[in-house]
Amino acid sequence: MESLSKCDSNFCALTPISFLRRASASYADRTSVIYERTRFTWRNTFQRCSRLASSLRSLNVSKNDVVSVIAPNVPALYEMHFAVPMAGAVLNTINTRLDVKNIAVILRHSEAKVLFVDYQYIPQAKDALRLLVAESTAYDIYRNINMHHVTHMCCAPIVFRIILEAESADRRRVGSPVNVLTGGAPPPAPLLEKMEALGFHITHAYGLTEATGPALVCEWQHKWNSLPSDQQAKLKARQGIGILTLADVDVKNLETMESVPHDGRTAGE
């Protein structure tokens, strides 16, 4: 069997395309995306992604070509995560918070064949890729949570400060608990404690955007519920353990390449 070459009868690439196709066929009229007052169904999303993939092919984008994008979290960026693989290309999403030099390095290294830029970044992209970062406001966050009855959200720890430092006029009562998956930087325990008090239940994860999504997650243990809130916050700030689909994870001493002790203090990579 090992000598068989890959073909359609014995191999299927791991991509998000099959997920979208199944959702469109099985749940065509169910809501797939909510953005402000715009809603799309899974049928809409599949059709829009298919059209975008066709447009990319018309630009001579083919297998393994890189398509880069500079955009905030808008429906078009979401759709590119399906449409670009549909065209056989590689999606390179660029962090809008990076400085000009880092963005230039990424574009050069990726050898992007096509660059998509959200309208708000067009002038800056033309002017040496100097980006104007569009931050979500506390009012927007609270309003969307209440308008759409949000139960789960993902964000970087910087968003916690936006929520906590909101003016009283911008705050809204969170009617039911909101489960938050965060990563990007270890959130300080006091910050987690304050967020929990507002009704946001935090799960800390660690990933590597350039290679994969979440790789580690702080799996909460039921026995920790009886601990004082400050101790719970310290536990939630930890990197956690490997996710179910990860084969293995380890932290090594960079000089010896030996595994470091699991003591929560010894540094490594």
TrEMBL record:
SUPFAM superfamilies: Acetyl-CoA synthetase-like
UniProt-annotated location(s): Cytoplasm, Cytosol
Keywords, alphabetical: ATP-binding, Ligase, Nucleotide-binding
Translocase found in the keyword field: no
GO CC field: cytosol
Pfam families: AMP-binding (PF00501)
Family: Belongs to the ATP-dependent AMP-binding enzyme family.
Protein name: Butyrate--CoA ligase AAE11, peroxisomal-like
Organism encoding this protein: Momordica charantia
Encoding gene per record: LOC111011974
